[in-house]
Fold:
Amino acid sequence: MQQTINGLALGSTYALLGVGVTLVWGVLGILNFAHAQILTWGSFAALAALHLGVPVPLAILVGMVAAGVLSVLLDLAVLAPLRARKAPEFSFVVATIGVSLVLTTILRTYTDAQTEAFPRQGFPVGAFEVAGQNVPRLQVVMLAIAIVAMAGLAFWLNRTRSGRAVRAVAHNRETAELLGVNSQLVFSICFFVAGGLAAVAGIFVAASAAQVSYSSGDGLLLVAFAVIILGGMGSVKGAIVGGLVLGVIEVYATSYVSSVFREIIAFATILAVLVARPSGFFGKKEAARV
Amino acid sequence: MTALLELSGVSKHFGGMKAVDDVSFTVRQGAICGLIGPNGAGKTTVVNLISGYLKPTTGTIRLAGADVADLRPHRLAAAGVARTYQNLQLFEESTVLENVLIGRHLSFKGRRWQMGRTRRREEAEQHEVARRLIDRVGLTGVIDADVAELSYGMRRRVEIARAMATEPRLLLLDEPTAGMNRTESDEIGELIRSINDEGVTVLLVDHNVRLVTEVCHRVVVLDWGRVLTEAGPTEVWQDQRVKTAYLGTHDRNAVEAPDAGR
Structure:
């Protein structure tokens, strides 16, 4: 029970991260290699806010907005000019790798490559006791926030005008444009949402580890890619399910086998799934995006 | 006799290939204009230029007097241009209703972000408009079906409903009856007429001689990327050059073009 909650909580951070990557993949067809750095910058923005004495919920919001804006800037300053020039797909990938290196280097220089303590005051600590088992509060809150975020996302994409525009652009940008959809606006919205959700994931990872460093996000990039491949590229539902599954597997592997095998077991499971379903849980042959 | 659409000296080159070469014609406000020509004559390229999908190499395209060649497509949609596609471009994994709703994107009265009751009311109104359009093209029975499940003819109707959802002044129809039988294409002809009766100007690309002759007021004939001639819908078929072009004999020295329309 406790392990399942832990797994789901870890998985929900993976899901938050994966959703952002999958959203950008969905509308633009590129993998954003700078996504993990945006997460890290969001965590640092929240940390700075906490140092200024800002209450936790507000600090989380600061982190989200900072990461969202940074993410939009990445698109406007780097990717939009490439789009205007109709650059080949590979240029976009290399550009995001470049941005990720720049962001890492700035943060490393600024923090002297030191790991910073992440204050946990104000975050929910301690544990609930459920049926004689301890369930850490932080994990429960994390899971709850992720569920709310995902429900909101699903509502937005399926039931609102701007959400429909996102799906239309994901499916066929040119057709959507001629129906009056401003695709650049759609890209900006998606990058903002992706950045904001990444920041939430980053802040909770930092809070549960009680520390954060310039390289905190690095390991998570591979995880995010694994999550969306597992769930099906471009599928928001897939990213959520993929994230939760991967989180639970990792926690089970750690507690019932050994932490040494944690990643091996996780990635072996992904391999097994992909052998059975090469396009992931919810992937379609022709990448049904978003 | 005001011109809604005015092409003057429009060319589009792909590398050395002149897909469209110095094309000029006008479509009168409120008219149904046919655009015909043999395969590869450049009809779809002209539609792609008018709809902003391609930018002309040279020349100007005016809509109600304003130059629209450099407008981004979503601006062009706002200016009143809508189209359907020869090879259908529907949002395949969405329902008929959702496809038409995307066409309503610009027609939401409120601005971008609406919450609670305002949003629900606006959504309900837009759903109602979409329903009426779907009813008009005769697809009420499949309104919640995924378009991927529909027949070819039905999908063509979804595209027309979606284009009409943007409330266009100029509707570009790229082969709306391709692959349809006679009854179906007659129905499309009726639909085009009724759309036109509401004041929507139509540019119709089609190979269906009967349809073009029956619904169009004027017909522009393209051949090898150039305007071959422009005439009324019945006269146009009498033109020897049109017959020759349609028979595919581009060698002008080849005599003896059999005396049949297509």
About this structure: The interface with chain A takes residues 51-53, 72-74, 76-78, 81-83, 85, 89, 91-94, 98, 101-103, 105-106, 108, 112-114, 119, 122-123, 126, 162, 165-166 of chain B (CB under 8 Å). The radius of gyration of chain B is 19 Å. Residues 91-166 of chain B form one domain.
